[in-house]
Each structure stands twice: as structure tokens, then as C-alpha cells.
């Protein structure tokens, strides 16, 4: 039986084969260093996510105008936007990403299952500041050399967030040239969420990397807890996308700390 990680990798292969990442136009990124924004922030620095569907929850919000959603997130104080470009299971697309890129000036993360340089080329053309790599895919040899993809990204002016879920993955991620390390509170094998994932990993770590916590963050209390654990930034999608008043929800979360 195909597990979720296999399915995610195979979906990216399918998207590549179908030409999803063949981008004809070229947009500029924000030229803002999200890492410095996170370090210097006086409040909770949020990476808010434009995400209409997910493997765990199915449909999260009816597919609607991503520009309106993105503008509300920016007005609410988001430090960066994560926008899904993976069409299968996530209802994302490069076109959706570029619609948002054309109207917002803050950093943007191309949220996808990155397995190939073709996707990094697309990230550059779409005006992405960052793309995502999942450490477990490389630890399990499901994808080839991570260092090569990070280096390729940097050569093309796109920074990298490497995502880990276990202490071993986290330590491996910290050995890379990733610009930011994300701790995913969701187990991608079971899709279960536990915010203590961030706590347990950071209790054992003395890494100087910029660390963000991802998945399962729903409230000000969640952010305060993760802040005390040592997370410096917070990637939040579902809790915001499910809310009727996106701007107000983001503003409340930003003012958690």
C-alpha cells in the first residue's frame, strides 16, 4: 500500500511529467531576508499559508480568490506567505502562486514537495524567496542529494527551508546550508499532530539556525507555548484558512507575543 510520503513524491513526479512547472513568465521575489525579519520581529513572526486542501483534512476552504486572502493576511501582519503549488491533494498551482506574487511585497515560500531542479527553476521564475525540502525524503533515500538542491537554489537566488519531524532529521537538517529549519509537528507517516514535537526536539538542540514551528498551531496559547520552547517563527495555514475573518485572525496570532 502506498504511504503518504510515497504518494507525495509520486504526485510531484506526475506534476513534473505533466509540465506543471513549465513557467513562461518571470517575476521578481521580495528581496527581503525572512530570517532577519524573524530575528528582528517584535511580535510573533507568522508565515501564513494559502492552502485550500490537504491530505490530512481534504477540503479546507472553498477555492476562492487567493489575492483577497493574501491581502488580508498581509494586512493582518503576516511576515511571509506560503502558497501551495502542488495540484494533487493540495489544490495548488504555480498560477495561483504568481497571482499572489504580483500583488504582495513580502517574502513568499513555494510550498511543494520539491524533488527536482525543475521545481527550483519554477520557484525562481515565480518570484519565490524560498522553497521547501523535506528532510525525511532524503534520509529515506526517496530523493537524491539534498545539498545539491540547496546549492542549486542558492545559485539561482532562492533560499531554502528544510523541514524535519524527528530529532535525527532535525540534526541532519542543521548540518545542511538551509537558511531556515522548520519543525513539522505533523507526522507525515500517520498525519497525527503533536505540538510537543517542537518542544522535544529543541530541548536537545543547541543549533544556531533560525527555527520555525509548523502544523497544528491554532491559538495564541499555542504560539506562546512554542515561543517558550525556542521556536522563532510559526507557519500557520489551516487555522487561518478555516476562519471567516482572515485579517483579524492573523492580527490576533501576530500579537500572541
Task: Give your account of this protein's structure.
The protein is of the alpha/beta class and 257 residues long. The protein has one domain (4-21, 29-254): TIM Barrel (Alpha-Beta Barrel). It is 40% helix and 16% strand. It is built from 12 helices and 10 strands. It has helices at residues 4-17, 34-40, 66-75, 94-101, 117-126, 135-139, 146-155, 167-174, 196-203, 220-229, 238-241, 246-254, and strands at 46-50, 53-54, 58-59, 80-84, 108-111, 130-134, 159-164, 180-184, 211-214, 233-236. The strands form 2 sheets. It has an 8-stranded parallel barrel with strand order 1-4-5-6-7-8-9-10, surrounded by 8 helices. Strands 2-3 form a two-stranded antiparallel sheet. Strand 2 and strand 3 form a beta hairpin. Helix 3 runs parallel beside helix 12. The longest helix has 14 residues, at 4-17. It is globular. The model has no long low-confidence stretch (mean pLDDT 92).
What's this model, at a glance?
This protein has 257 residues and is an alpha/beta fold.
Given the structure, what is the number of helices? 12
CATH superfamily membership: Aldolase class I
- Residues in helices, as a percent range: 40-55%
Average pLDDT score: 92
CATH topology: TIM Barrel
Kindly provide the name of the CATH class: Alpha Beta
Amino acid at each position: 500500500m502506498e504511504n503518504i510520503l510515497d504518494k507525495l513524491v509520486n504526485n510531484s513526479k506526475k506534476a513534473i511529467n505533466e509540465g506543471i512547472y513549465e513557467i513562461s513568465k518571470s517575476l521578481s521575489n521580495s528581496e527581503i531576508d525572512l530570517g532577519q525579519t524573524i530575528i528582528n520581529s517584535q511580535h510573533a513572526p507568522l508565515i501564513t499559508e494559502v492552502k485550500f486542501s490537504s491530505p490530512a483534512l481534504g477540503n479546507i476552504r472553498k477555492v476562492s480568490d487567493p489575492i483577497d486572502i493574501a491581502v488580508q493576511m498581509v494586512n493582518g501582519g503576516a511576515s511571509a506567505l506560503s502558497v501551495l503549488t502542488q495540484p494533487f491533494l493540495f489544490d495548488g498551482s504555480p498560477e495561483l502562486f504568481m497571482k499572489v506574487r504580483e500583488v504582495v511585497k513580502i517574502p513568499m515560500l513555494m510550498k511543494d514537495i520539491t524533488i527536482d531542479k525543475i521545481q527550483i527553476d519554477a520557484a525562481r521564475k515565480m518570484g519565490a524567496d524560498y522553497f521547501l525540502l523535506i528532510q525525511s525524503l532524503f534520509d529515506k533515500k526517496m530523493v537524491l542529494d539534498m545539498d545539491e538542491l540547496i546549492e542549486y537554489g542558492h545559485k539561482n537566488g532562492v533560499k531554502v527551508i528544510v523541514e524535519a519531524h524527528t530529532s535525527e532529521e532535525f540534526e541532519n537538517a542543521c548540518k545542511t546550508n538551509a537558511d531556515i529549519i522548520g519543525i513539522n509537528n505533523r507526522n507525515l507517516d500517520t498525519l497525527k499532530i503533536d505540538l510537543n514535537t517542537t518542544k522535544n526536539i529543541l530541548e536537545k538542540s543547541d543549533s544556531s539556525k533560525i527555527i520555525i514551528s509548523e502544523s497544528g498551531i491554532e491559538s495564541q496559547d499555542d504560539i506562546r507555548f512554542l515561543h517558550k520552547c525556542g521556536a522563532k517563527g510559526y507557519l500557520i495555514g489551516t487555522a487561518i484558512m478555516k476562519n471567516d475573518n482572515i485579517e483579524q485572525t492573523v492580527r490576533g496570532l501576530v500579537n500572541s507575543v
